[in-house]
Prior knowledge:
5% of the residues lie in helices and 53% in strands. By secondary structure, the chain is mainly beta. The strands form 7 sheets. It has a 4-stranded antiparallel β-sheet with strand order 3-2-1-28, with no helix packed on it. The chain has a 4-stranded antiparallel β-sheet with strand order 4-5-6-7, with no helix packed on it. The longest helix has 17 residues, at 3-19. It is globular, with a radius of gyration of 20 Å. It starts with a helix and ends with a strand.
Amino acid sequence: MTILPFRNALLAALITAASTPALAETAYVSNEKDNTISVIDMNTLEVTDTLEVGMRPRGILLSSDNSKLFICASDSDTVQIMDLATRRIIQELPSGADPEQFALHPNDRTLYISNEDDALVTVVDVPTAEVLAQIDVGVEPEGMAVSPDGKWAVNTSETTNMLHWIDTTTNELVDNTLVDQRPRHVEFSHDSKTLWASAEIGGTVTVMDVDSREVKKVLTFEIKGIHPDRIQPVGVRLTRDGKYAFVALGPANHVAVVDAHTFEVLDYLLVGRRVWHMAFNADESLLLTTNGISGDVSVVNVQDLEVVKSIKVGRFPWGVVVTP
């Protein structure tokens, strides 16, 4: 007599589960020429919405709980915060002039912002919108990263060709490291032990030991049929398991796949034109690349190291993040 109600309950549960999207991930892409954010459904790999934001959006990042999207509106000289539940701008933060990249401390409240026009890093307390510090760095600062353990903030200066090491407990500049020409991006490994820094004009990526701040390896790249001047490393992404590093090579229109242990370049993946930045989905099965000139996003199957789709977005896509 109890079997029928049990079967009905089980059937209802299965119908509910089937009607609920599994792993409803969403990607957000900043389009710097359109002043918009493209919204991509990661189940269908299609654009589902386009959101208007401030002028020339470039760097974007998520809060730790994935409820808010931070946007560097460079030509508006502000950092905007979007509530992803409503997809509305709910706050604007003082950013200094021309914010391009930024990084959020693991405490989820201290934001480090590079100010390209002023040779400064601006440190902002997010809840109060208070400027905590402005730190003098090199000329044309751009790349910005905070170590997962929260100890270091590192900025790159394009013209000075340096990495600037900031102690996050004091917000003071404590060291500088000379690298190749025009460093554009820095990325910490997930264990905070190594730092990867791309040099766009130098055509290299420098891998550094964080504790000693000594160079472990300088990576170079060579793609058959492509002039070396077009190989311009920008974005870097590292897998959580420490297996791969992916390097966006700008106008070379390829992403380099690097063995993160041996530093051997394993492959080059052809993507869209002027590949800039990248982001993984939650389980790192997919990697998205923003391709500025072709105005699209390439989707890479990480396991097979194959490009499986191109998604048209706005003009000059720059940054990308994925919410789980």
